[in-house]
Amino acid sequence: MAVSSNELETEIVYPDSDGKPMAESDATRDYLIYGVEALSNYFQNQTDVYVSGNLFIYYKKGSPSAVIAPDVFVVFGVEKKKRMSYKAWEENSQLPQFILEITSKTTQENDEYDKPIKYAQLGVQEYFQYDPTGDYLKSQLKGQTLEEGRYQPLATTRLADGVLSIHSQVLGLDLRLYEGELRFYDPQTQKKLLSPQEIEQARQEAEQARQEAEQARQKAEQAQRDAIPRLKEMGLTVEQIATALNLPVEEVRAYF
């Protein structure tokens, strides 16, 4: 009995995981999460930009072994939605244009030699590497751009404060090292891309400042009202007191 090509295709399984627990150092995990969350927040209003990380990307239909799983990646021109895995043939053949790998002792050789070859073959325009501990890469942060099928180093810049900065043309963002800490920056506003935790902390600090300002305002207004009886005893008129304290005449008259 003949078996159709469609029936054969349905038998192919593309796993969503390798079944192994994700074992990462604190630093690797933290920067992986920061990269995905900060970039997701930055591109949140663009419905055709997909940001993810540590997700299986299948790039050849019919071959489950043709797979990569970058730490952080960005794909332009595809729908922003949740995925269990990414299959290029279901995404108009779009693959990541930006990849960031967080290098560690166990991934150094793969990140340095094997992945650049694979990513270049797949047409990944920019490939960045970051070493949180500074132990495994000659340069703790480096970026490469694809030119004629091969990666060429992206220019690094030292800012006035000595901070190392590399511009990503694909993202339109700078990747900078502040005392060894990787952060994305918007070069137009010079503002750092915050993680959700940093955004929440900033919100809480802003709310606290607002409350303190409101309390100070109420205290100042009360001090004005407390001055009304004293000025009244000094013989000032309602209008004079209202002018002196910058209060409505009606409010001052209530004390007379």
Automatic annotation (TrEMBL):
Lineage top rank: taxon: Bacteria
Region of interest (Disordered), residue spans: 1-23, 200-224
Listed InterPro entries: Nuclease_put_TT1808, Restrct_endonuc-II-like, Uma2
Occurrences of domain Putative restriction endonuclease (ranges): 37-171
Organism: Gloeothece verrucosa (strain PCC 7822) (Cyanothece sp. (strain PCC 7822))
Pfam families: Uma2 (PF05685)
Name of the protein in question: Putative restriction endonuclease domain-containing protein
